[in-house]
Amino acid sequence: MKSTDLYPYRNIFINYCRKIQNLSVASVNMINQILINFWKYYSVNSSHDPNINNVNSSDIRDYLIQLDQHEHLNKKTINKYLSYLKKYFIFLTENHLISNYPLYNVKGISYQRKETIIINWMPYINNFLGKDLHPETIKLLILVSQGYDLDQLLNVRWDDINSKLSNTLKRYLINNLDFTKTSNPYIYQGKRIDKYTSLDRVTSVVKKDQKSIVLPVTPRKLRQSYILSIVSNPNFSDNQLLKILRISKKSLSYYKFCVSYYNLIPYKEYIE
């Protein structure tokens, strides 16, 4: 993306709106401003470097929730925002500028307004060991519970975490890692290479375990529930939260909003 652009492919998209769709100046200006606002929101709240190919339906839903609860826009206005986002992403998809259209499951104001998120699951990972889950799933639970962000997961090695784990979890990892070539393997160790090179590989495996576990086991959702577990703890000050989570003040403000918006249920209460 060029530094002069305020969101990816802005110039060619606006040109399309003006010259191909013949939209009015007012409509083009409104679309442009909405996309600027969305991209600012996504850039601040994305776990990775902002990339238009990584935008998914959850990102769109979170943005709509923010419009509803934080900016207090009415349903009609939110649906208008959504229609313009759809126009933009359809344009990108049809012109092969992105690989996947991210709004298939987002339909107007019908997005889930009070999603339930299970929190405080971190002390109970031992409960999942007897469920015949893939090692990738247990490893994901362990790493996220230790506070690692998504862009760090594939780089964590045995020496980084073994002193922080219970004997039960240590034993599990020892039984699911190969120490023959190195005493300090990556947790997401590859069979022919040192480590996994893409988090997509982890995601594709852990999704197979979703029916066997009450938590949503995608990396992004697990990271979200971990953060909300910490932010919802009244014993932490803002400075402590910033230090623990290693996030910006803007992100902390957003997650505090999420704590007040979502229906948070501790794991222990959920299973009882």
UniProtKB/TrEMBL annotation:
Gene3D superfamilies: 1.10.150.130. The keyword Thylakoid does not apply. GO terms for biological process: DNA integration. It comes from the Bacteria. Residues 4-93 form the Core-binding (CB) domain. The keyword DNA-binding applies. It holds the Pfam family Phage_int_SAM_1. One of its GO terms (molecular function) is DNA binding. InterPro entries: CB, DNA_brk_join_enz, Integrase_recombinase_N, Integrase_SAM-like_N. PROSITE patterns: CB. Keywords: DNA-binding, Plasmid. This is Integrase-recombinase. It comes from Lactobacillus amylovorus (strain GRL 1112).
